[in-house]
Amino acid sequence: MTTSHYIAGRWVEGQGSDCISVNDPALGQPFAELMAASVGQVDQAVTAARGALHAWKSTSASERAAYLRGFAEQLGQRREALITLQMRNNGKPRHEAEIDLDDAIATFGYYAELAEQLPSKNRDVPLAAPGFSARTRLEPVGVVGLIVPWNFPLVTSAWKLAPALAAGCTVVLKPSEVTPLIEQAYGQIADALGLPAGVLNIINGKAETGAALSNHNGLDKLSFTGSNSVGSQVMRSASAQCRPVTLELGGKSAIVVFDDCDVGQAVEWIVAGITWNAGQMCSATSRLLVQDGIAEALLPRLQEALENLRVGNPLTEEVDMGPLTSQAQWLKVAGYFATAREEGLQCLAGGKALDRDGWFVSPTLYADVPKDSRLWTEEIFGPVLCARRFATEEQAIAEANDSRFGLVATVCSADLDRAERVADALEVGHVWINSVQAVFIETSWGGTKGSGIGRELGPWGLSAYQSVKHVTRCLG
Question: Ranges for the Aldehyde dehydrogenase domain (predicted)?
């Protein structure tokens, strides 16, 4: 694969110095490679987006909506190929890969509807002062850079790309170098739909490419999803240019289980929150707070459920959990297993890498983890669950909020008034009550504290790519 970059409506060969190896994590072996974009090609992509901006933002909302519906339809037509690629390059079980694709399709459809509902360009604003009139306009923010992660490719890019195009922005998209292939579908679809050249540009590469994009002075906004360490670099780049940035970063989220909860249901919600996508989620509920009265019944059932999960190659086996997506992530998680042994943590399940080809680890549960343990405070990004007990509602809220992150949380209780009360007290961006992590397009996504800046999805996702202009006129 040499023509791996989509710039100004054309597929071009990479001219960078990095060769990107694309791996099958279930085998631990590469199956494709491509050359990264050069710094010059990043500049070409931004220049193309800038050149296409005026014409694209001048199109009607209904025209943009038609393109977005076209993206949704074309994704559906490529269904089996994209599901297979998601399984092969990410290691996702089939049912997870199917949900990813359905999510991307629904996102484009949703923002097509929102685009059609956009108000007219001018809206009168009533003023208390006589002698003046005022109107407001919602305008596209301009050329945006989108940098997306490897854990949910296709999905995270849809969450950014669809509202950006709906708002009238032009885009330079940089996929992760770990999973660079599946986003190529967006360029192929742009070709098939006749999307004007330069509206969507896709560049692949490693850190050098990402830095060239985030530092480029031709961008009007940058949206990044990924680690806090890289996010801080992106934020520094944005501050140097004094331009807006949306950051969706890490998490160390809590799931709070009260003693009136059904044990079987609680186990289901806990397992889903830590093993979906092999725990490689910023929203993974990796801190389990369990009330004293239910702990003795819950923890053995949870241990059994984790030990009985089917872990394997999703392309050849029926599995509940696949491998970690990269060797680097596998080594990172293995390092936390070593830290747990050094700290003397009580391991009830897992705690080890699996002795087989590929980058597999066991679903893991540690009990009675101290609050100062690295495993309790740091984002691991793997199927590693740490449990602590609590006595009162006030204690549960305090311990759940005792984190530098604030992305999501889950509350499990038969007392719905209490569950709602606790949800309101948690310092996070999204709370589930008695549920798996069902993410709906109409709701917002994003966090507080160190989990990021801004929101995606829902109408908030669209407004992130819009600029507000007021025009005030003297009538005298």
Answer: 11-471
